[in-house]
UniProtKB/TrEMBL annotation:
Entry keyword annotation includes Hydrolase: yes
GO molecular function: hydrolase activity
Coiled-coil stretches noted in the UniProt entry, renumbered to this chain: none
A Gene Ontology BP annotation from the UniProt entry: carbohydrate metabolic process
SUPFAM superfamilies named in the record: Six-hairpin glycosidases
Protein name: Glucoamylase hydrolase
Lineage: Bacteria, Pseudomonadati, Planctomycetota, Planctomycetia, Planctomycetales
Annotated keywords: Hydrolase
Gene3D superfamilies listed in its UniProt record: 1.50.10.10
Amino acid sequence: MFRFLPWKMIVRKAARNYGIADPSLWLARIRQFSQQSEVQEPIELLRAGIHFHARGLINTKAIQHNLDWVWPYWVERQFDPADESFVPRAFSFSHINLTHRNWTAVGLPELSLYPIVDPRGLVTPLHDGWSIDFWLTDPDGQQLIPSRTLDDDVDQSLKTDGRLAVQTNLWKSELQLRQRVEVVVEDRPGVPLKSESPAQPVLKITIDAASPAGGSLAMAIRPYNPEGVQFVDSVEALPDATGWKVNDTTQVITDRKANRLLTSHYDEGDVLYQINPAAEADQSAPPQDSATSTTMRCDQGMATAASVYDFEGDSMQLVVRVPLAAELQVQGHPQKFHPEVTWPEVMADAATLTVPDSRIQRLYDGALKTLVLLSVDDIVPGPYTYRRFWFRDACLMMNPLLSVGFVDRCRRMLNEFPSRQQHNGYFRSQEGEWDSNGQVLWILNRFRKLTHSPLTSELYGTLDKAVAWIDRKRVPADAKKRHAGLLPAGFSAEHLGPNDFYYWDDFWAEAGLRAASEIYRDAGDDAKATKASATADEIRDSIERSLQDLPTSRTQGGIPASPYRRMDAGAIGSLVADYPLQLTPPNDPRIQATIEALLQKHFHRGGFMQDMIHSGINAYLTLDIAQTLLRNGDERWRDLVDAVADLASPTGQWPEAIHPRTLGGCMGDGQHGWAAGEWVMMIRNCFVREEPDRLVIGSGLYREWFDQDTDLAFGPTLTAWGRVSVRIVQPASNPRLVIDGHWHREKPPIDVRIPGFEALQNVNDGTSIALKRQSADEFRVDERPHVPSHKDR
């Protein structure tokens, strides 16, 4: 009934009564900047945006008026006028983290909970929850506050041996904090698991504090997280001063009794000043003595608390546990939690990498763990901001997961797809995006080919409706428009620009239809195969007509984002035709022209600078370009890979977009699963790369890896022809290549194209192949200028 009300008239009259400009006029003007589409803004993104900026509005009220509080790392930097991260706030609608969106999740391979740790060790145990911090004070009142620690005084790393843990070491003068954060399985907090005991996940934090003259260690409950304020309405001390219950629900348990329990509410200020009153010397009122306070409620939701542990020696250790069983009931699927599955068990079948470059090795190992961590119940592209399902991210993360051997994991995810398909055939992530059907069809075919197994009847049953949806959705081919025969204008969640007729959607549709045709044909359904292939041909013809209709001055020989755009950063989406879809051959002139345009105008610090929305450097899109350069034999791929490695956080993670000056995250999740997936796929393709008619071995191996006799190896990796492992023994003194292939049917043609060595064609597997270095007159360095990185500036 409400939709029949004259809302536009009501809003216009209300605005006029209050002297406000008619919002419908402004909205109409705004929409003139995009192509007319059936969905202007997906409700899912509007909902997420409202939630995001609601917190930003709360931040405007809580933070700038209380800068004497201890705030998370991003606030301490972004609100400091002497810091490069400083952002003026005068006309900002909301105050959000735009400069240091970095965090790292810890967890278990079969647990869909993701406690996160920020760059200074701030621990957020629950999804979008409050946090735990640790402060060290010496007898003279000198304090080590992690979020205020200088970059040179912190060392953070991801530990991937056995368990998944974040290690943070901080120091100030002679004070030192060493912190390890991980998720473990216990009977009950602090009691080792017994075989007959009910297992529960527990967040475990181990703190080692050091101060030559002794001092005090404080465990502090903080009403915020890396996005900003997150309410703490109440804190209550546990019996025997062994921790706190926060918001009447979650326990924070320590392994020893505190010497003092301190609490404070918003009007009293930060509990910090009860630990070290000298820090508040410039305030007129003395701090309230709450040394015996065991409970606190705060109307503003800004309650703070601290357990203080005094020590007289030069060091002490504290172990803190947060039970996560209740969180699993709310955020995860308890029936899908398998505590008996360990990290070593899950990683046992994954493709392993062996190279002498410790950085490349560390980033690959960490990226594998990120992919596994984010693919438990659903595949999600991030542990926090992006902890939700999109078909696009799921398919593009499944591709590397599948390629490195996580077949059962991918099968489990794919089996959920039929229930997500709408009755009309649409695989909807959010209304107004048209790329998902093509992506699902493409990954289904990849799964079928790499595993050499047919689709289940449920998955096969999704094909007809998915194919028909693509065909129905297209604009009529006889329309007298540049977009005739293409998919309609849609919202670009890939942030290619305003609503438009994106070639990105069309290339995915074409690839999906060709994938469906392969599936049909192998299943013996030739009629459906022929129809799907014919529709794919029609879309390709429509793309070609559209591109040919564009003036060269607009395209510069490349492929813009849409028929109605010039060559800008949005053209990155059109490169999907080459990688990963391989709809175009290597060295396709349009693809090459598109890359050159992007390299010349849209790169910063060696990486692709996405001007649309992100306004940051994108690791995953940079790697997509590197993949095309690698396929083309263009050695500039190496510059891009090195730049992405340089841009990784100390824990080996990449946010969705990276601030061009602070090099912290400026957009999206601080741990981007898609970026991790592209890193894994990049390293895999450096060793084993698939072309439609052959395998290419070693085209991305670094020349300097052959300067020492450390073996190089990768595998086993799944390909369309079978499982392959590659090893190069004695790379410096007597390089020999061994290819171990387990083929589905016949062996494919195999080419060897290792930089610095003579190319080999159609080699055999299972034998030791001598590699011959190129002679001086054969050796030719690519004369195209390398891509400048921040090291060149």
